[in-house]
Amino acid sequence: MDITYDKTRALAIKFDREDPLNSFRQRFHIPKDNQGKELLYFCGNSLGLMPNTARKYTDEMFEDWAKFGVEGHTHARHPWLPYHEFLTQSMAQIVGALPSEVVVMNSLTVNLHLLLASFYRPTQNRHKILVEYSPFPSDRFVVRSQIRFHGFDPDSSLLELQPDQGETISTESILEVLEKRGDEIALILIGGVNYYTGQAFDMKTITEAGHAQGCMVGFDLAHAAGNLRLELHDSGMDFAAWCGYKYLNSGPGGLSGVFIHQRHHNLQDIPRLEGWWGQDKESRFLMGPVFNPIPTAEAWQLSNPPILPMATLRASLDIFDEVGMIALRKKSEKLTHYLEFLLSEFKGDTLDIITPEDPAQRGCQLSIQIKDKDKSLYEFLTHNGVIADWREPDVIRVAPVPLYNTFTEVWDFVQLIRHALLSRL
Question: Tens digits of per-residue pLDDT, 218-228?
Answer without folding.
Answer: 999 999 999 99
